[in-house]
Amino acid sequence: MREGFGDLEWLARTRAEGDVEAWLALMPYARRIGISALPDPQSEGLLFRLEPCEGNVGNVLLPALHGGVVAAFMETAATLDLMLATRTPRLPRIVDISIDYLRTARVTPTLARCSLLREGRRMGNVRVCAWQEREAVPVATARLHFVLGDPAEGGA
Amino acid sequence: MTHDQTPSNADWRRALTRFVTVIPHTRELGLEVLEVAPALTTMRLPWRDDLLGDTTRGLVHGGVLTMLLDTVCGSAVLPALPAPEVCPTLDLRVDHFRPGVAGQAIFAEARVIRITESVVFTEGTLWQETGRPLARGIGNFVRLGPRNTPEGFAEALFAEENGHA
């Protein structure tokens, strides 16, 4: 099999190297909306960043980012964070997402941090918090469930 | 449409087409409004390769589905209200039944379940093949009311009605 999420050797290697860029390279929509990952100065983990691209605007009057784009950003962050944080290489497949919109997301950079609240044998639960100016003033919070697939079996 | 008439379904289809065309994200993705009735709105997102979330397996990014449900549910709110109001998303829940696959348009429909003084409750569904839903969404939208709706919001939705050939 060519390199990709279904290739266990590739997945284990990119994961060991923390090569989130290699994962993002296989996610065209995540690239389209301008998602990147950076080291989290407060932990061993990652911070995620959404660029304030003109194409991400959902309300031209305010203006504000499209709430659905903010959700897509938070889902991508949760997926990538989970792929690094699990005990062994797993392939997450989203089951559900619930997002609360707390404030208008302005057309400025948006950051997100994730917490893996539970890693079970089959299911994972991730919480995501997204903010702009200050982390204490979140623009949205989300919680997601994922099936944790076994990459050796070609997925979930 | 003249000012003293209730908009027809065709007026609303043009108004929501304008709505999703003014929004940069949905304009760039080429989102189309197929049908609008007071209680049900249907849209179509044409296929393009940058909707993918996994190029090796050819699967649609789950976030595309959330974005689409937010858009279709939020649009369905407008024709269901007595007069158009700005209604931001309060919260959204999406259940993923099966992944979307490369190469096929994604259809979206949403209905308004209940309108209260302060909230509009909606539900939406997405599919590529009829009878095989990809995802279900439940979106609640806040009614900002006439006082917080910009002057001319309704007029802007129905603008250019008479200018088209």
UniProtKB/TrEMBL annotation, chain A:
SUPFAM superfamilies per UniProt: Thioesterase/thiol ester dehydrase-isomerase
Domain Thioesterase stretches: 65-136
The organism's place on the tree of life at top rank: Bacteria
Entries under InterPro entries matching the protein: HotDog_dom_sf (IPR029069), Thioestr_dom (IPR006683)
A Pfam family this chain is assigned to: 4HBT
One Gene Ontology term of the molecular function aspect: thiolester hydrolase activity
Name of the protein in question: Thioesterase domain-containing protein
Species name: Halomonas lysinitropha
From TrEMBL, chain B:
Transmembrane segments: none
Domain Thioesterase: 58-133
CDD domains linked to this entry: PaaI_thioesterase
Keywords noted in UniProt: Hydrolase
Top-level taxonomic group: Bacteria
InterPro entries, per database record: HotDog_dom_sf, PAAI_dom, Thioestr_dom
Alphabetized Gene3D superfamilies for the sequence: Hotdog Thioesterase
GO cellular component, one term: cytosol
Gene Ontology molecular-function annotations: 1,4-dihydroxy-2-naphthoyl-CoA thioesterase activity
SUPFAM superfamilies in the record: Thioesterase/thiol ester dehydrase-isomerase
Cited NCBIfam families: unchar_dom_1 (TIGR00369)
Protein name: Thioesterase domain-containing protein
